[in-house]
Amino acid sequence: MFMLDTNVLIALQKGDQEVARKLSTLNQESVGISSIVELEFRAGLIRETADSRSYQIGHAILDSVRVYPFDSSAATSGARLKLLSKNSNKMDTLIAAHAIAMGRVLVTNNTKDFENIPGLKLDNWAE
User: Fold this and answer.
1) Where would I find the PIN domain in this sequence (predicted)?
2) For a designed S-S bond to 37, which of 29, 33, 56, 102 qualifies (C-beta 3.0 to 4.6 A apart)?
3) Which helix (H) or strand (E) holds 32?
4) Residue 108 and residue 84 in contact, taking contact as beta carbons nearer than 8 Å
């Protein structure tokens, strides 16, 4: 079971074939994104023009992926991580907390940003 980080969605949007290949081998039910990732990705899409190819691809990605709401379990996990983690990026901490709360492997191309978060399982599809 996997939770995709924002940079994985961006890689898909840019046409990264390796990421697309790995994603295509998985059951669609086993992959999703945090609503925090949705927020970050939509923030990037807002900067695009609605008729651009990148904008259209980005929205197609969002339409095709399951979004997991950040709930009380994720908030509790986030509160613990805030105390334990030295990660200064609040959004990354929330995404990590959500993956931990759901028992998901976080797929990210920036494993360095997450490597010191206790209890988080990571995978990098760019390697």
Assistant:
1) 3-118
2) 33
3) strand 31-34
4) no
Strand partners, 9: none
Element of type H or E holding 114: none
Edge-first strand listing for the sheet containing 121-123: 66-68, 31-34, 2-4, 105-107, 121-123
- Tell me the average pLDDT of the chain: 93
Question: pTM of the full predicted structure?
Answer: 0.92
Instruction: List, in order of start, the domains of the chain with CATH numbers.
Output: 2-123 (3.40.50.1010)
Please say whether the beta carbons of 110 and 4 come within 8 A. no
pLDDT band at residue 64 using 50, 70 and 90 as cut-offs: very high
Q: How many CB atoms lie within 10 A of CB 72?
A: 8
